[in-house]
Amino acid sequence: MGRAWPAAASGSTGSSVDGGVAVTPPNSTDAPPNLLPVTDQHVSFSPGVPETVLDPEPGEAVAALAAALDRPDAERRDAVAAVVADWPRFLDGWARLGQLARDPVEGYAYTRVGYHRGLDRLRQSGWRGSGYVRWEHPTNRGFLRALDGLRERAREIGEADEEARCADFLHQLEPAWDRIDRAEVHS
After folding, report:
1. pLDDT by residue (tens digit) across 128-153?
2. Alpha-carbon gap, residue 116 to 119, rounded angstroms
3. Residues 30 and 90 occupy one common structural domain
């Protein structure tokens, strides 16, 4: 039998015990109502699938990448590599370096780094392993480019299962992925 706790407020309904004291009926934890366990689980009251938007990259990094991408073809890859060396957490830098790689294995390595750094950034931004990461938000594009680049490079080196996983993940994060202009992804 549970303990009898004093009623939380006057006029509460309850039963009488020993001398007519009002009590609140016991609960499954046998704790008073103000001491019930509280979880650290986030409860979302917003409808639909959650969406994560990454924080902006440093303005200097964005400007440096734009300048590097404007360099002549013969200088472009090294210029982008210099940007990534200066800002190693810059997701779009890794994605672009993967696009400019000298061979599929090098491209695979660069895009894989961008993808994993992107997962870290998503988690830091509140992503819990599911929900949208939409292309419409420019700050998400570096991660999505890296993931798409990883998909492409996995195909090129014969990793069909990884290519399929990346394609599935892209479509989970951005259901409109197939409708995005490919030129925009590679520009």
Report:
1. 999 999 999 999 999 999 999 999 99
2. 5
3. no
